[in-house]
TrEMBL record:
UniProt protein name: MarR family transcriptional regulator
InterPro entries according to UniProt: HTH_MarR-typ, MarR/SlyA-like, WH-like_DNA-bd_sf, WH_DNA-bd_sf
HTH marR-type domain segment(s): 48-176, 183-315
């Protein structure tokens, strides 16, 4: 199978693995940009009981504290995974690490360009390339591990020393079995666990026009609408541009109307349409199923424990998060 990397001008290039589209890469970038657009503030009470929601907020906080772009994190994950030996399939490694297949092409391109990874034709399958770590790659891994350890120490400073390995153990349970031994470091585990839960949730909504991220604004508008967009942003504790993007999606999908604020006719107010109420039930059902599956992955007592630990990590930016996470229960 041939990877075709779609260039802006319509040309293609790239090593063997699989056909990909520019749309996938753009969609991934839009989602990541939205998830990083968090602002300090009280967390919505209706959402604070969900591990997936708290994990998203921790991911956003960690991303905001990052010393470099997300691409650097992906490159380290690939290099670190290759320390255990050669990998026979680039696509398989991408799936194990939860990296979008389009983005994986660019990651390996850059690593190969720097001489840190070598691609050779797989003699058992001429359509695939074997990924191998070079000496330059091994040196990069050693430096990367030191940087990861230092960053993780800063990000988890709110936890007691014995709580950090426990947090890592719980986060690893949210990864596919084949990835649990490949991902190291709290920051990387948070990112991988978050991305996996997001994908699992969105898969349950395939064909509906909904995403898991729509649950928050829909549920808040159901209880607080009609509601000015600025107030919705405050209640979600996300930036104005991120709120605008969410609202535009919901309006385009016929789930939300922009009407007039009954308390101030100069302002617009958002309210759910009849379709919005119907779609809220659908997304709420998917979120509930995802929450149940998450609890099963974490094992007895694991959900409450992880929720409390994530709440502690959020406390500096979201006062009261630890208490909310520890006491809030889903219906």
């Amino acid at each position: 199978m041939t990877i075709v990397r779609v260039e802006p001008g319509g040309g293609t290039r790239g090593p063997d693995t699989e056909t990909v589209t520019l749309t996938e890469a753009v969609g991934e970038a839009v989602t990541e940009a939205e998830e990083r657009a968090e602002v300090p503030g009280a967390l919505p009470e209706a959402l604070a009981g969900f591990v997936g929601y708290l994990l998203r907020r921790v991911f956003a906080r960690f991303a905001a504290s990052s010393d470099g772009p997300e691409d650097d994190s992906r490159e380290f994950l690939v290099l670190d995974a290759l320390t255990g030996g050669d990998w026979a399939s680039q696509l398989d490694l991408a799936e194990r690490l939860g990296i979008n297949r389009t983005l994986m092409v660019g990651v390996v391109d850059r690593l190969e360009g720097r001489g840190q990874v070598r691609r050779t034709r797989n003699p058992d399958n001429r359509r695939q390339y074997i990924l191998s770590l070079t000496d330059e790659g091994r040196s990069a891994v050693e430096a990367g591990r030191r940087a990861v350890a230092e960053r993780d120490a800063r990000l988890t400073a709110a936890l007691a020393p014995e709580q950090v390995p426990r947090l890592n153990t719980l986060l690893a349970r949210l990864l596919p079995p084949g990835a649990q031994d490949l991902v190291r470091g709290t920051g990387h585990l948070v990112a991988q666990a978050h991305h996996r839960l997001r994908r699992l949730g969105d898969e349950k909504l395939a064909g509906t026009g909904l995403r898991v991220r729509h649950y928050g604004p829909l549920s808040l508008l159901a209880t607080s609408g009609p509601c000015p967009q600025q107030r919705l942003a405050q209640e979600l504790a996300i930036s104005g541009p991120a709120t605008s993007q969410l609202v535009d999606e919901l309006v385009a999908g016929g789930m939300v109307n922009r009407g007039r604020d009954p308390h101030d006719r100069r302002r617009h107010a958002l309210e759910l349409t009849e379709l919005g109420h119907t779609q809220l039930k659908r997304v709420a059902e998917a979120v509930g199923v995802l929450a149940a599956e998450t609890a099963e992955l974490l094992g007895p007592g694991g959900e409450d424990e992880l929720r409390a630990l994530l709440g502690r990590l959020l406390e500096p930016a979201h006062p009261g998060a630890a208490e909310a996470a520890a006491t809030t229960r889903r219906d």
